[in-house]
Amino acid sequence: MRFMLIRKADKDTEAGVMPSEQLLAAMGQFMEEMTQAGVLLGGEGLQPTSKGARVKFSGGKPAVLDGPFTETKELIAGYCLIQVRSREEALEWAKRWPPLDANGELELEIRQLFEADDFGEEFTPELREQEERMRVQAAELANAKR
């Protein structure tokens, strides 16, 4: 089962306040622990929404809204993508998030990713093969660019 640990934004992350050396070290240690446990699939911090945009569709037509966005409690500052055996294991990893982050005043959201079997019969063998080909191709292209 794959889960995303979503680090919610706050006034500091939205203001572009960079983490301290101590926090970078603590986050690095946390990521290393997940790596060593074989559960970490990826994770990054995100730039503030002042550097971002939203694309909103209405009637099928896109419109671009440049950041910043005001609802801080609804925004994301970073994420970790993990693969674990259960929701409970994902929660246990989330509980180990470094308390140094935001002086211990932060919110993580835990969301499970869909897996192929979750889509039922509508996700036909042909569609599954197509998705797997795209995943392999995307990984190969990403590795080639490194």
Structure explained in plain terms:
The chain has 146 residues and is α+β, with helices and mostly antiparallel strands. Helices cover 34% and strands 26% of the residues. It has 4 helices and 6 strands, in the order βααββββαβα. The chain has helices spanning 11-14, 21-36, 87-95, 125-144; strands at 2-8, 40-45, 53-58, 61-66, 76-83, 108-112. The strands form 2 sheets. A 4-stranded antiparallel sheet has the order 2-5-1-6, covered by helices on one side. The two termini are 28 Å apart.
Write the layout of secondary structure elements.
Elements lengths: L1 E7 L2 H4 L6 H16 L3 E6 L7 E6 L2 E6 L9 E8 L3 H9 L12 E5 L12 H20 L2
Features:
single chain; 146 residues; alpha+beta; two-stranded antiparallel ribbon; globular
The secondary-structure element order is EHHEEEEHEH
Number of strands: 6
Write down the overall geometry. globular
Going across the biggest sheet, name each strand in turn: 2-5-1-6
List low-confidence stretches: none
What is the mean predicted local confidence, pLDDT?
94
Radius of gyration: 18 Å
In whole angstroms, how far apart are the ends?
A: 28 Å
Q: What percent strand?
A: 25-35%
> What's the oligomerization state?
single chain
Derived from helix and strand composition plus strand pairing, the structural class reads: alpha+beta
Helix count equals 4
Helix content: 25-40%
Describe the largest sheet: 4 strands, antiparallel
